Each structure stands twice: as structure tokens, then as C-alpha cells.
Protein 1
Amino acid sequence: MNIGIDLGSTYSGFARYDKDSKLVEPIALKEGEPFSIPSVVYVDSKGKVYTGYGAKNKKVRTGRFFEYFKMLLNEKDESVIASRGYDDNYTPRKITKMYLENNLKASLKAYNDSKIEKLCICVPEIWNDELNTLDGRSILIDILTKEIDIPIGHVQVVTEPEAASAFFAFNYEKETERVEAKHKTFNGYLLLIDYGGGTLDISLTEVKSSGQGSMEICCREGCGAGENHIDSEGNRIVGNAGVSYILGVVYSAIKESEEFRDSAIDFLDPDFIEATREFESTLKSSESMDLIEDYFTQFGSYSDFGEALNQKAEDFGEFTYKDEVISVSFQCLFRAYKQNIETVLAAQVREINKRIQENLKKNPCSPSSGNNDDFKIALVGGFGGCFFVKAQLYEIYNMDANAKNDPRVKHISTNKKELAISLGAALIAADRVRLQKTAKYSIGLYASDASGRFKPYYGIKYHQIVVPNKPYFMLRDDSKRDEPGNRVVYANLTGIKQFMIEFSGNLDSGRPMSLTPVMLDKLKDLPEMHFWNCGFSVDDSDVVSFHILPSGSEDISNGKTIRLDNYSKMFNLSAW
């Protein structure tokens, strides 16, 4: 079976591509259960493990309940990890392994299959923004290959916007065939606004479809938010999206009640956890979504919703906290949105719109930008279904409340936005979609130039299109071809103490990163007394390798390759 996984902060999705029907479909792990599976693990007093809905339905006090493990995989601050109930015995990595292993077994069982042919799992695009978060890829690969025992060549890690783009472009072909009775392929740009439980990822991807069953997808721009942070009350908040919003509503409602106005609130208190779970279930119901929409649309568009805060508080719903019924008003819902979400979303959308305007010469906020059918906008993720999120984005992009005929969403909008990432990952796992790789950052070394001065040279540059596993050597003159005479030459490889890293197109601002003793041990056996060329490559999962080759040689087998798969072990990240 070819499986695609969207490992979400609050909900995950598993999907498969059926080669016989040529259709991609979500996997229901148990008959009658929703396709979106809670990202929850529960360990009872006897050590038995439950995941998904089997875990979410357990009582918090009778065992150990683990959430948000994906967002904590990269976390280096032990106090943040401990604040969410993890310890040395139950780490975010171990819990992630339990969750993936249980649900992969259930996926195979659901289709009476016994083997995973290829698996594609997704990570947030913002994990590529800095070295502190890049380890998530190697951690997931290690879990799946070393601990769950899937052969390493059968596991691929891609970004969520790459997977979502694969699905939306695939869906475009199906929709145009269904609606217009003719097969059309999408060639153009997709603006993906992915709002989940933990992260906001906004990405501009370029899609090139052959029309013959394959397409190439390249991430051109991206921004977002989702770091774990401490709020004004000292509570540790996971991410900056759906989880942050729900915690904000529950916290505010409790503090607005007479009984608990002056009480301290612990986010790890079982009473608070159960209150957030109860309120989340209420908020996600279709009836509740309709209530919120009906109430706020009476004030007009999003910028007018603030008028509701001047009205007498009206009850929206309720939850139980410490045996007391806590009311939640419509005003509380919107106030929490403004405090936790509005500014972050507006700032990131403003940033991506600026980049689109500069690079594509299109105003993404104008409906006419989609007239040529080469620019589309798609909402992705569960929190993208929040009425306030949609209303704010509709206003920013000048869309009517009924936006389905807007050329920027026509044939691309879908009711499967929560499943788009897993469905796209399944298409990639089945080789239905080929991804064009672009470098997430620049990486290189210092070397002396012709005058003897030291300067940085880069083998791979930020947003450079790269062929997976092909070495790119550092060149004296980047304007000329890669040939032995143009490559930077090193005489003493054991003198390498730093790599140069830069997460932008400004190569002059590259940062020297000191190598750790572990990494220096890998380099200590490099040959001396020779002249060498050095370069870097990127594999299908964006893991970088360091290559050395005797100067003048073209045969890669004559050199040595060192896989750079764990950045916290490679570099001293304390100064990052």
C-alpha cells in the first residue's frame, strides 16, 4: 500500500492512492469513525497504548494523556516539554512513534494489506525557517525507518504545502472534467493558507502539469507562525493557531466568570484539559458554526464584527470546569480571536501578498489576478474552517461571502481542505506526482579566493532548483559552469571547523556555524595531503549530505559522502 500521512498538531489524516481506480482516498481506521484522527495518545495504568479516538475518549485522570507531540519534536527547551506532561520515559519522540505505529497497523488492517510499499509524511513549511526546527525531518525518518522498520528508501518527507498543492492540482483536473466535460491541467501558482492546530503556513507554490498524469511542484515563497511560546500569564502555549485559540477562549471564559475571576489557572490541570476538550467538541459541530456565522454576519463584513463587543454579552455555549458550568459568549469568541489570531494572520498574509506582488506582478487581492486561470487561492487545514478566519481572509482578498465563482478559487476550492495534505501525500507516495526540489537554505564553506582572502562559497543556494542526491560543488565563479577547473580547491580538510548557513537570498549575511565534536569526529578521517573539491546534495526528504572528491575527478565513487541528518548534533545551536 502507498500511504500519505498528514501528521497534524491536533488532528491527523491517512490516505491511499488506488492504482486500479486511479483515485486518491482518505483512510478510515475504523468503520464509522471520521477521517480526521485526533493526534492524541493515551497510556493507561497498565501501560496499554490507545491512539486517536480511542485515546481522546478516555478520562484524563485514569492514565497519561499526551497531545501536541508533533510540535514538540523539535523543541529544545526541556521545560516546555515537561510543561506538557512529557518526561524521560514518555518523550515526544516515543509518543509520536506509538501514534504512527498504531495507526499504520490499523490502515493496513482496514484494507487487508500486509505491506507498506512507500510512505510519504508531511512537515510544516515553517520547519525549514531555521536550524532549530530542521531536525524534525530526520527525527521522523528515524522513527519510521529505525523504530517502525520501514526501509529507508521507502520513506519520503515533504512539506505540507507541497502535498496540498499536489492534491489541489489533481482535484482541479477532476473538477474541470466533471463540470466542464473537458480535461484541463493546472499550470500556474497556488497560494495555500494552511491553518491547523499548531501552525499557520502560508506558501506560494508553482505547479507544472504535463497533462499526462504527472506534475512538478516547486515552493517559491513561504511564511508563517507557530512557535511554542509563553503567554502573558506564564502559561506555555503550543503553536500559534487553532490550539492557541481554543485555549484562549476557555481561559478567557473561566476568568470572566464570578467563581474563578481571581483564581490561577494551570493549563495542565485535568479540569482545564477536560474543559478544552469539551469546548472543542462544541465548537467543531456544524450547528455551532452556523450559530457563529448567523450572529456575526448581522454586523456586516469582518471589520464590522468589533461592533459585537459593544453589545450586551449573548450566550453561545458552555462547558464544565471544576464542576461549575462556564458560559461562553459570542463576544468572548471574537475577543479571543482578536487577541490570539487576528494580528498574526494579518501580518503573515500581508508579507506573502507583498512577495507575490513583487515576484508575479499580480495583486493577489484583486479577483482579476485569477482571470488567466494561473493563480489560485486555497484554504487548508481544520482551523481554516473557522468562521472568523474565513471572514478575515475574504475581506483581505475582496471575496464575496459566496466565493465559489471567484476565478481565484474556481475548480480549486474543495470541501476536503482538512484532508488535502494527506491526500496529496498519498499521490506523491504513489509517484503520481513528482516534486521539483528547491533548496530550503544556502550551505557552504569558507575558502581563500585568488588574492588569499577568506570568503564564503556555497554549494547549494537558497531556493536553487536541485536534483535529488546530485552533489553541487562550490565554484570559484558562479556565473560559469560546474567543471573541475572552476571548483574551489581545499588542501587540508581536517581544518574545516565551520559551515556557512543562510536562510535567505542574501548570501553576504551567511552565518558561520561551529561544528560539534560529533561532527568533527565524522570529518577527522578525511584524507590529507591532497587537493579536494567539496559540495553538498539534498535528498527527496531535504536531508543534506556533504561530499568530498579528489580535485579534477568526475567520478563520485572516488570521494566520500557524509549524511548531515541531525542538525542539533552537527552544530552548536545555542547561538542560533
Protein 2
Amino acid sequence: MRKLLSSLLICATGLALTPAPADVPLRGFFPQSVQAERDLEARFKTMPDPGRMREAMRRLSARPHHVGSPYDKDNAEWILGQFKSYGWDAHIENFDVLFPTPVERVVELVSPTTYKASLQETALPGDPTSNQQAEQLPSYNAYSIDGDVTGPLVFVNYGVPADYEVLEQHGVSVKGAIVIAKYGGSWRGIKPKVAAEHGAIGCLIYSDPRDDGYAGGDVFPAGPMRPAQGVQRGSVEDMPVYPGDPLTPGVGATKNAKRLSIAQARTITKIPVLPISYGDAQPLLTALGGPIAPAAWRGGLPITYRLGSGPAKVHLRVKSDWSLKTLYDVIAKLPGTTEADQWIVRGNHHDAWVNGAEDPISGLVAELEEARALGTLYQQGWHPKRTIIYAAWDGEEPGLLGSTEWAETHADELKAHAVAYLNSDGNGRGYLEIEGSHSLEKFVNGVALDVEDPESGASSWKRVQASRILNGTPESQREARDREDLRIGALGSGSDYSSFLDHLGIASLNLGYGGEDDGGIYHSIYDDFYWFTHFSDTSFVYGRALAQAAGISVLRLANADLLPFAFTNLGETVQGYVKDLQSLRDRRSEQIVERNRQIEEGLFKFTSDPRDPVTAPQRQLPAPQLNFAPLLNALDSLNHAAARYDRAYNRAVTEGRVTNAKSVNERLIQAERALTSTEGLKNRPWYVHMLYAPGFYTGYGVKTIPGVREAIEQGQWQDADREIARAAAALEREATLISGIVAALPGA
């Protein structure tokens, strides 16, 4: 409460420092177009209705609606009916995808004592939908390979690569063992991936109460946090290789698509995996011996955290039904007029692991209210310049299935026509959180200035600024005070923007409110209407704010005279990435020197090679000097082109005309495409963007300039200079394209 009050005070005292919305130029609009756009947006902002969102959530989250379930299809058909009732041209597009569901699940401690995990989330009094066991998917990790294994247990903290170096220092090997890892620290699919690379035969993942259980507050239903029996379901598909249907990489999973065999699919795990609750994890962890875990590894359970291995031995069995299931993507369209062949695409998924009130329905009901408002404006006589496409994706939870298969099916059309993709994936109480393409950073800052935060009464922009000044690092505090635009984050993966940005090079944004409704119900049976209406956006006012923010973004992109891209922010951001790469090279060099010293002094008892865990680890070669000159030269070209475009854009807006605006806009659409390479990233060519990609060992977490960054992180020095050249070539393409656009503008 003290933090909230301080934030509100800063908002109140700082309002005068921020221009009123009417005083801020609308990026992309000529002076003669501004008033009509502002009048249209004022009408739009009054339309999203929190009461309608509440009732839509009640309906959509009333029953479990995972992929392949009857209510998943029922929801899709209801959503289709809603779009049609709003006046949209809408249809359902189907895909057939591999989606395994559990048949057998066993986790049991077999020595030195015995314990059989319940693997069951229990219904709770007062929570009316938690008792729908007959329709609920059991707790499991989708795309875990089948297996029946028994072995000693090893605690691996969050199970990321750095944790295995700590185990080596303690003389603990996971070869032939079953590892137990905490949720968090990386995307869940990284944990079995890294464990298998180190020789483990099985993987358990549990939610520690220190992270999202009783350490954070009262547990559900008394509070929002995860109860002892709560389990986080989730996919462990190796999405950093490629998302979507594992059997149809790069092509849509249509009826007649050519499919890989399951054995050929690279994204299915190599070892069996199951998630468990902290109630089931405690007896297993209690039975561990071996060294005491480092302080940073210890969780919130009332036990002594030890590494193992032994004396605890665990039996793990996983078996699934590996059949195809049908997806139901709902696609709706409002046709454009003068630039109808340019598309603005907006999406949020509708499938859930169970009832999914917060994830994803809280975002979907906002999208539906946007669509209703836009449909009303359309029926009242407004028609957008550009075509607007709204999507309710299916199959996001198992691996971005619906959006990936649709984007792969329509790849050529999207490359030719898509201006931008706007995504949401859940929503709650708090601050407007935005990540995305930095060519849209200036644009979306303008949107945030024009959407009121429901609780403070300040703009959403001002509330985020106040939060960063209060709670940010010294660098983010300085930027929040001094930088014209609030910095947005880069996108990795983990939601439906991935195919558009990472694979097709379509400028993308991800929007949603949050940060003040933390809880522990993620991917559990307790993510339901009762939890959301008691502990999150209880009055749905942040749902209305999301509908306003995303809807205004769509309106401006659809109506703009000149598409509202700006490239100076992009150049400045990439400059920061390049500086960080140079520092990363120096840090890696220091780490290698220190590791070699530790090896010489006998501090490592095991090698990094899981095939030979008893011989001494090998010294690493010192990090070479890298030639960053091509990247620095390309960045200089980009910054010069971006500055010239800014001047040309401002001149065009001042004059209020661009006679060849449609042609200029067609070229602006290609700006994000210029940052891609048809060759793709090493060992994962599905990812073609040279600036943004999910990390190979982080999953959701973004790696910026990923080819260079991961070559340095992984010590693949022979690749680093090559990747620098490839990234530089992408920046040069971008600079050349922007310079060509400048030449086409008036007064060039």
C-alpha cells in the first residue's frame, strides 16, 4: 500500500510535466486527419464494458477447455458467433496437430523410505469449478517422451546450465539419475533438455513455495498463492528449435500436410518429465543426502535442502496418448478501403490448460470488447483504410500451435500484406507492460499517453514512468526521467507473436496490464473465475484499459496516413545491444580464466561432458578478440538513415501530404522483414530474425542479436565473427531500405 500511495503521489505531482493527449502529435497522421482520429478514438474509448467482460469470462471459463476437449470447440463456436454479431466477416480455420495427453503417471520414492506422489490437485470448498475432475487434464508436461525409469535423485535448483557447473564443483553428477528442479529461472522445457544433455534419465519439476506459494502470502482460497497440492502444467516442447506442431515444422498442419514421425520430431524431450506439487516434492527432497545446497538454491520448504545423489531413489513412469487433435482458430475480418491490401492483425488465444480465467480469458475478453466496439463504429459509418484481422487462437498452451500453423499456412500472404501483429495473453491489475519491435516504440508510447490508468487517474504511460522512478535500477530511473519515450522490452517467445516476429519478420507488440496481482495459480485448476474475481482485476477496469490500449493501437495503425514506424529508437536500442555484446565478450573471457584456474586447483571434480563424469574437465581456450567493426559500421549506417527518415517524416507531416503515401507505406512494411535472414539461426533455421529470438537455453527469455550473443555465451568462437557479419548485413539492409524510403518522400 505504501508503494502504491507513493506511486500515486508521483503521478499526481508529475502530471504537469507530461503533455495532455490533445497536445501530443499523433504519429502517422497529417494535421488535417488528427481531429477526426481523436474524435473516433474518444467514441471508441467509451465502448468497452467491464460488465460484459465479466460475463464473457464467466461463460468461457465455466469448464475446462484444453485442446481437443468438447468445451474448447464449444468456446470457439461461441466466439465465432460473437464476432459475427459484431458485424465482422468471421470463420473457423482448423488444423490437425500432435497433442499428447497422459495415460499413466507415476512418481514414487522407493528408498530409503517409500512415498507415492498423489499427482492430484484437490477440489477446494467455495471454488465451484475446481471439482470438475472428469473434464480436467491431469497435471503433466506435454511432449514429454514416454518412459519408465528408476534412479537416484539429484536436486538441480532451477535446472539451467549454470546450475550444473555448481553441481560439478560439489562433485555431484546427474548421469543415470532423475533430477528434480524448481519451476522458474528459465522456461520449463529447458530443464529436461539440459538434464538430458548431462546424462540424466528423468526429470521432475515442482513449484517451490518460496517462489509462488505461502512465502508470498496466503494460499488459495484464502489468498492468491499456490496451495500445497497446486501443480503447474505446461509444455516442454523444445520451442527454441521451432514452435507449433512437432510433426509439421515450417508448414501448416492441414489435413494433407506431410508429417514427420514422432521419432523424427526434434522438439519432443529425450527423457520423461512430470510436474509435481510442493506437497509431493517435500518427501522426495527430505530423503536426499549429499552436500547441503548453496544458500541461493534453498526454497521455502521446512527442510534442509541437499543436492544428492542418494540415498533417495525415485521411480518415474510417463505414458501418453500420442494422437492428433483438431484446433479451432477463429479468424475475423473488417475490410479496409484505400489500402485494403495492408493488414493489421490482432490476437489472443482461447485454449487453456484447465479453466484458464487469467490465462488466457482475461486477455481474450478484452479483445472481444475491442472487436465489438470496432464493429459498432464500422456499422455507424467508419471504415478503416487498412484491413483489420482479429484472431482467437487455439492451441497456444501446448506450443503456440494455432498461431504457428495459421502463420505458416498463410506465410506468403502475411509477408506481402501484414503491417503489424498485436498480441495479448492474459491481463490483470497493475501497470501497462509492453514489449516488441523497437520500430514501434515511439508509436506505442503515444498510445500509452492516451489511455488512463484506472486506479491512479494518470495516463498509463505516467504510471509506468512513476513505477520505474520508484523501483527501477539507477539506469532505468535515469531513463524514465530523461528519455522522451519509455523503453519497451524485446520479445523472445512464449506467446502467439512468435511466428509473426521471429519467423516472418512482421513488426509485433505484446500488451497487457499486470504486476499487482501476483498469484500461484498459473496453469492449475485454480486459475478460474473465482480466483480472478477475488484476487486480480476484480472490477475488470484493467480489462477495459487493455481493450482501450490495444484497440487504439489498431485504430491508429489502420487509419494512419503514413505508417507510424520510427527508426531512431531502433538504432539507439541496437547500439545498446552491441555495447552489451562487447562487454559480454570481456565477461566470458574473465569467466574462462577463472574456470581454468579452478580446474588447475582441483575445485572441479567432474567434467562438463556427461559421457565421462570421472575424468578431469578440460581447460577452455581463452576468448579471442572479436571483430565488431562490421556491426559498428552497419549501426552507424542505420543511425544516419534513421535520423534522415525522422527529418523527412517531420517535413511530410508539416506539409500534410505525401502524394505517393501508399507506395511509401508498402515499403515501410518491409522494414522488419529487412532484419531477417532466409538462412535463419544456426541449428534452428525456423528463427530468421537477426535481432530477436528466444534463447536456446532460456526458452521464453529473449536473446538480442542472438547469433552473436549465443556464440559468445557458449564459447563457439569460430561462429562469432560469422554471426557478427550476418547481423551487420541485416542492419545494412535496414539502413538501405530506410534511405530508399527517405528518397521517396517530398523534398528529398
Protein 3
Amino acid sequence: MEAITAFIPAAGLGERLKPITDQIPKPLLPILGEPIIETVLARISRLSPSVIAVNMHHLWEQMQAWAASSAYAPVISLYRENPILGTGGAIKNASSSLKSSAFIVHNADILSDIDLSSLIEKHIESGNIATLAVHHLNKFNNVWIDKQGNLHHVGGQTQGTEAVLCKIAFMGIAVYSPEFLDFLPIGPSSVIDAWLRAIAAGKAIGTVDFSGSCWTDLGTPSAYAAAVFAALKEQGKTVYAHPSVDCGKAELQGSVIIEQGGSVGFDALVSNSILLPGAHVSSGSRIEHCILGRGFHVALDPADIFGTVPVSAPLLTMCGNPEGRVNAVCIGTGGSDRTYYRIPCRETSYVLMSCTASDRDYERHLVLSQFLRKHGVPVPEILGTDKQEKQALFEDLGDLSLYSWLACRRSPDHIISMYCKILDFLVLLHTSVTDHAAECTQLWERNFDREHLRWESRYFMENFVGGIFQIHAGEQLLLDDDFESLARTVAEFDKVVLHRDFQSQNIMIVHGNEPRFIDFQGARMGPAAYDIASLLWDPYCCLQDSMRDTLLSYYIMRMKETQTDFGERPFREALLPCGLQRHMQALGAYGFLSQVKGKKYFLRHIPQALAYLRRESEEARDIYPALHRLVAAIHE
């Protein structure tokens, strides 16, 4: 590809985003700690431009400070405007950086996934003076093009030519040849006027249609908030708190973002909100559905941000709607194929679980829920069911998982205290509930046996080793021997009621400090050490070794207090093989969910899970040598 330069218009007042932009220039609005303009720069930098020109006017001192600290500072050239020069004048003002080659102009408030390299290549091949990225988006359609994609007119109607022209939307991204600069006057001007002057002079302005690509114009508070919440969900999270923020004594519900410079007081509640630099939520106050900053509060309509879907089922009549229809906001970020909705019901809200017709765990989930609640395990209460539609209504536990709870800074003592509460309930599951397991045939008859353990190792090989690393093991027979030996070993350990996926995203924290358990439909009779490996060696939340040792000792102490014949030595001996099994299963799941289900945020947990498996396989290298060699090869 030919050498190029780039220009990012970043001088605007951000009128539609006021009062937010009275404090922060639009290009510097953060999305999970990163200014919008940095996201644009990251995409443009892949084109290896010799220079990236950026203009500035509104709150230019902030723009200048940002540029000096940016990782892209060596290629950024700043152009201050006073007065502001408009979309055309800005390009002309930066012509000293743009006149030597083709250049791309990318608005600072546009997020997209279009192929910029393809846009540039098609521009250069065409010989046109400009090439615009376009797409069909009715509310923005304003550009008239012919069947060849050439620009003819912008805005309004085209008197008599509607039959041969169609209307499409400009995406705020374009590539220009240096001669386009000749059609721009010095001083304030519009780039659209320059397009029309170029066409009148016989020059061609082409387009490339990127309809269907992801594209967001962050020009309004709701559009900005939707982009922020979408970015949070793409990471599989419900809470983002900048590392400098102390939010450990507040209650967080729904999706919450607290940027650097935001603060939350003791016992405050923040729900479905964005706290920008300078925002402060005072102690005991309640903030919901808003963007908060220094001196401003912008309300958000949840329907605009999260989207709603109508849900109809007989069980919803209990919510007081005689038609049995409500609007339900989709929630949840996990790996399940089930869909969960939060629905308003009178003075409260419930969670609707909707399963697919092929979901074999629906009935088991209901039976296990009733059994576990009967014996004191803190799982959500069932409020109604529609077995024909495979739906169920549960009490709403909020959105704060242990994983999200740990996103706020917590003292070691606070973390240990929370984990001890969780372990107390796990001890209950492994002792008293186990004593009554025969009451529940859906549980009692499901053993974590050799067959299921071998399924986990195959899952690991197919979806992680083959799916992620595309490695075809050369020692398959030796590996099968190791997997068989490991499965037989784990299957022989004493069995208790096992949650089986006891990790931080399946533990909810309600009312600030009460743990509750979800996603237990896979429960089986299996070794207690598997649940402990899932919790204390959780790839989502890596505990310090000293803290893990403290919690492991606490669990053993509580088991000894509750069960006089508890054997500490066999339990500790089971930790290593159970850890191997658990982390193979986790890596297999991350491979499947990221590659097959398209949930790429699971990829970020692979390094920690692989580090655990590496340590365990090293410790067991003499027992499972082929597995050790495989993990070592992947790690390298």
C-alpha cells in the first residue's frame, strides 16, 4: 500500500453532548479508561501513516495535554484553530501535513469496524479525487450516488434524477488525493462545498459501500452511553472501575462505569450509570440511569441504552399485567445459551430465564433450585414457571457478581471475609446437603464419573489445543493414557454434592455483602476438591498465594468442625488432579465460547488458566508426562 497521512477532526464544540462537553472535549470522552480518539488512532496507526494531523479548538488545552502523553505522540501534529474553521477549513489548515500523499480523514467521534486498508486501496485504484465510506442507514441517508457509486449531490432532493440516483449515508471516513486541497479555500469552509466544487470541475468522487458494518456516531449522550455499555458487555463485565477509584463501600447494580477521577461515597448506590472524571456520588445517595460528571447529571432512558424486547408468557400475569406482556431488558454476559431478562413487576423486578427447546437442563434447574433452597443453600427463589415454553421467573439478585465485586478495590481482610462467607455455604453443600442428596434423584443419579471426566479432557483437546492453538498432538496415544489415568483417579475420590462450576461469575453479591449462587444446573456428585479448585484457583479472579492458603485452611477447619471424619490428607491429595481437570475444562470452555460462540472476551482469561495448568502439570510431570509435555509446548 502507498504511503499515506491522516487527519482527525477534533475541534468541534460537541453541541449535542452538552453539558458533558462543557467539561470534556468530545474526542477525550473515555470508554473504559481510553479516550475515544485513542480508539480511532489505534485503528489508523495500523495503516502506518507518516503523520496524523489533529485539529483542536474547544478546550484545546486538554487536547494538547492528551497529545503530549499519548502513545502516538511521535506521529501526532496538532493544529490549533481560532476561530474554528469548519470541516473544510480544518483540512486546508493542516495541508502542510497532508499535501505529500493520499490522506485519510476519520472523524474523532466515529467508531466502526470497516476495513480502512480496503478503502484506501480502492481509492488509489480508482484515480478519483476522493473516496467516501458510505452505508445505508435511513436516519443519516443524505448523499446521492449513481449506480457506479459516484457522488452527485448532498442533501435535499435531486429534481428529476431520483430514478437513476440513490440516497445513502456518509460514515465520516474518507480518503482524498492531495489535489483535493486545491478545492478548499483558506479560512472557514465546509468539506461538502469542496466536494461539489470538485464535481463541478469534472473530478470524480467515488464511494465504497460498507453497509452491515458496525458503526456508531457518538454525538449524543444516549449514543455515547450505549457505546460504553456495549464495550463493557463485550468484555464480559458489568463493572468497570479505574484502578485509582475506591468503590468498595458502595453498592453497584446493573452496568456501572467509574472513570479515573470519579468517586463514590460510603453506602451509596450506583445503578446503570457512567461516572466521568470529577463525578462524585455522596455517601448514602442513589444514582440510577445517568451520566454523571463535575457539575452535571444527564438522565438516560434504559430503553435507549440497553434495548428492550417484548416477552409474553402466562406466568407474567403475576406481574399485574392482564395481557401477560412486559418489556424485558436482556441481562447477563456469561457463556450460557439461555437468555435472561429483567422485567418490572409492580414495585420490584424479577428475572425471566428463557431456555431453548433443546435445553436438557431446564427441568433439572427447577428441581435443583427447590432442593437446594430447602436445605439452606442461597440460590434464587422460583416465583413461577411455564414448562411448555421452558421459561421460569426468579427473584432478581441484581448484576453484581463476585467477579464484578472484585473490580472495586477491596482490602485483603474484606476479600477474605467475603470468601469465608462463600466457603461457609460451600461447606454446607459438601456436608449437610450431601447427607440429603438421595432425596433428589436429579442430583443423586448424576455422578462426576470417569465418562464425564474423559469428556472434559476431549473438550480441552478439541476446543483449546485444536481450536485455539490448532495443535494436533503427536503423542495422542500417550495423552489418552494420561487422561484415562487422571479420570480414573478423580472418579475414585469421595463424592459430595458438587456445584461443578463454582467460580466468581456464578456467585452473586446482594445487599452489599450477601453471597448467592447461580448456574447450578450442572451440579453432580463429585470430589469436593473440584469446587475448591474452581473457586480458589479461578482464572477470572487470581488470588494471592497467601490469601489462597488462608482460605484453604479456613475451608479445612470448617469441614473438620462440621464433619468429624473429614480427611484433610486425602482432600489435599485430591487438589492437584482436580485442579488439572478443572483447568482443562475451563480452557476448553474458553476455546469453545470464543471460537464457536463468538464471545471473544473469554480469550482474556486464557493466560491465567494456562498458568494454573502449567504449574499443576509441572508438579505432576512424573505422573502425567505426556500432558506435561503438551502444556509446556503450548506455554512456550
Protein 4
Amino acid sequence: MKTQARVQRLSGQIVDLQRRAVFPGTVKWRGTRIATITRDDAVKETRLIMPGLVDAHIHIESSLLPPSEFARLAVIHGTVGTVSDPHEIANVLGEAGVRYMLADAKRSPLKFNFGAPSCVPATGFETAGAKLDAKAVSRLLARKDVRYLAEVMNFPGVLGRDPQLLAMMAAARRAGKQIDGHAPGLRGEQAAAYAKAGPTTDHECFTIEEARDKLAAGMKILIREGSAARNFAALAPLLKSHPDRCMFCCDDLHPDLLVRRHLDEHVRRALASGADKFDVLRAACVNPVEHYTLNVGLLREGDPADFIVVDGWARFRVERTYIDGALVASGGRSRLPRLEPKISNKFKARPVKPEDFALALPTDDKAGRKLNVIEALNGQLVTKHLTLPVSECDVAGDVIKLAVVNRYAPRAPVAVGLVRGFGLKAGALASTVAHDSHNIVAVGADDASLAAAVNLVIAERGGLSVVGPRVKAVLPLPIAGLMSAVDGREAARVYTKLDRAAKKLGSRLDAPFMTLSFMALLVIPDLKLSDRGLFSAAKWGFVPVG
């Protein structure tokens, strides 16, 4: 005879987001479902009981942790669900990479909701480890555990009516699944044309004017604050003008920040800005659940028992997190067990030499020659296209070398360009987290340091590294060259050590490794570097260094 689950109860100040009310009462749940929510004026506890938080767009791989380990840290901050695009690992391992994420996520109670990557590779101007065509994407969308078509990054392809992209979006509509957008900088008629083609969200707005154009086109706006892209301050006014059309997301969040915060920080900042508390929590909880029809509870009778306990509105510190009725975090500690991940990878790069990083320039000695230089911007994924009168590196002027090494072919030539904004006075950084094809991207003040940093990550078949006069350190990322196999807090500790070392070498960026990882992302304007050369998103083609 099956034993019926016992009833559990918790009293406090109930935050009812449907009725926009807070009242004293008790939540009772049996097993995984909420049984009753009753008002009780005799309840004196001041703690708040509210729905759990949902990140509306995050790449789990960018935490440098597999899903099961990401969950152990995220639940501490009140996260009960995510909407996650696995295109990072898909660019390395293809469909097998998506299946890896789905399988590992199932080992955790956190409610991961993965999409079918739409742009693998992101463009035809780079070398990736795999390709997902419309047939492969349709197969993924047919799965019940694949919830939506992930960000359609090739916005020029959408505007140009690319047949493969149109077929993917048609497959999503047939499956009754949402289509996520990604269209940095699109305004006016172009934004309207992009939205009309199918994408319903955008997380790439970096100005309020761009967001308003996309809202006018019918899209919903995801207010992003991650490790590299920080758009919260620019977009926070939308919480007052369009609260029903906003969601919160991190997009990419490295482990040093994940151990300290997740969407709970979005909520704290939004409340501090003067936004209405119910509108803020709808963006953090309700809007993503309703938009993607997620199986995440919203603190209603009959819902899954997914909720959090918060100390109050002023500090908004999460004290407990429940998922499907089980206590998964309390007192700032995760109650989820550490699970050993499986290792899967694709890595063929061989050691490089300093001479591989020579800058290819025309042989003529033309007076007054100017070179095309990428300008990295702190807190942004977009870059600027500069033309500067430099002959090669100018460390004093903050113009140093940027390189991309093909990780999928053992003897491919190294692509080399110039970048301003990293601030390195010596040494080099290297990373196999290099959106979106995840070749090896490196930045350095001299060729010997570049070669040494790249060889450190090649030796580990993936990782992040720093090389300098008094430092030589690496964080191994053996899972697809993207994720660590160690405890999340240990990964965060080593990452923090590398971050500090990069800043001691002169970097002024808030997150130098996260910024570096986007220097090869061609679909983000304007100038980037792929393994095949310098690329201008504005011209949608390659440009010479000089």
C-alpha cells in the first residue's frame, strides 16, 4: 500500500503575485504540490514567502560548471528554474552536447528548461566543432524536454530570409514553442521586421531607446546583468513603464559571481530603484513562467511547491529555497549533494610557438598607415571599430595582440589582430571559452606570453590561463573545454585567483576573462576576430588588419 506524503507547513507573510497582496498566513504542501494557502492574522512571523526566481536566459556553461553543480550554487540565491540555451556546448559537440546538458540537469531538482540551439555555428565565418541544421534542430524541438527555439543570433540571416533559419522557426511554431531573439542594435523598421519573422524576446538591448523600439515591435525585453554584459541600469526604467513585458536574466555569469549572487541581486537593485515590488517579482518569477509555460510553481494552490523564504524587502536575503516541496538550500548553504560529472570533449589543437603570433601586414612601407583595431568596452559585449596609426603593438597606448587558435584542427594558422581596452602591461590571458565556436582566444602584450598562455590551456584540453612575470596559472575545463569537473566553490576560488592576476597585469576590466570570451563572437557588433580573421558585423564580412 502506497504511503501518502505527510503535510508540511510554513507560516509567514505570503506574497501573492496574482492578487498583488501581502498577508499573514500559512502555506501547506503535501509531497510536491501546494495543498492550501490560508490567511491567518494570528501569524506574527515577518519573513516573506514568495515564488522562486527564474532566470529567463542563461548559458549554464558560462558558469564554468555543469548543470548539476550550477544548481548547487544557484538555489542558495532563491533560483528554482532557468531558461537555458545550450549552444555553447552544442558548438563543440553538436546534438550530443545538448543531450549531455539534458542528462546532467536531470540529476538535479532545479528546473532547467533547455532550448534547441538555432545558430550552430553562429556564422559561416568561423570554425566550430559541430553544425546543427534545420533537420537537427527540428529533431530537438520534437523532444518534450526541449522547451523552445534558442536565441536566433544570425539576425542578418533572419532579415535576409535565410531558408535554414526560416525552417527552424517554422518547426518551433509547429511544436507550439517560443522563439528567442538576439538582435543587438536593431532599431525601427529592422527591429519590427526581425520580430515579425518570429522571435518574441530580446536580451541584447543596451539602450532604453533600442528596447522601446523592440517593445513597439511586440517583443518582450530581458533585462540583463551578468559578468560581462551589464545593462540593468540602462533598462531598469522599463520596470515602471512596461512591467508586464520584462523579465530578468544573467545570460553569462562566471562562478566568482554565482557564489555571491544570482537573480536575487536583480531584485535588490530593482527594489532600490523604486520600482513596484509586485512588478519586480513578476519580472523575476511570473513573466518567464507564463511566457515559456514552465512547470514552475507560482505559490498557488495546486502548483508545484516551488517557493522561497526571504528575510524582508530591505535586504532581500534568501533564507530558504524549496523545489517540489523539498528544502534545497537554507542559511546560505546548499543542501544538494555534490555529483561527479561525466567528461566529454573535442580538442585537437597542438602546442604553438611565439612566431605563430606574428601579425600579418602588407609588405609595403606606406607612410601614415592605419590599422583596424578592436576596442573592448567594459560591461558590454559590443565593441568599437577603430583605425589607429600604430605599426603593431603599443603596450603603453593599450593596443596589444588578440589571437584565435583553432582548437578543432591541429595545424591551422593562428588568426591575429589588435585590441584596445584590456589594459595589460605585461603577460597574456587565454581561454577556450570563446563564444560561440569556442576556439582558443588569447590577448597578450608579447608573443612569448601569448604562446605560453595558449599552451597552458592546450595541455589541459581546455581552460582559462594567466601568464605574467610572476604568475603562471590555469583553471582546467575538461568538459567540452567549457566546464570544470571540480566543486563549484573551488572553481570559483581558482577563477577569482586568475581574475586578480589579470588585474595585477594591468587589466582595468571588471571581468577580463568574460570580456575576452566575447572577442570572437562575430554576431555582436562591430569588430571581432574569428579563427579565420578580423570580422566586421557592420559589413558582415572580413576586413584586413591593415
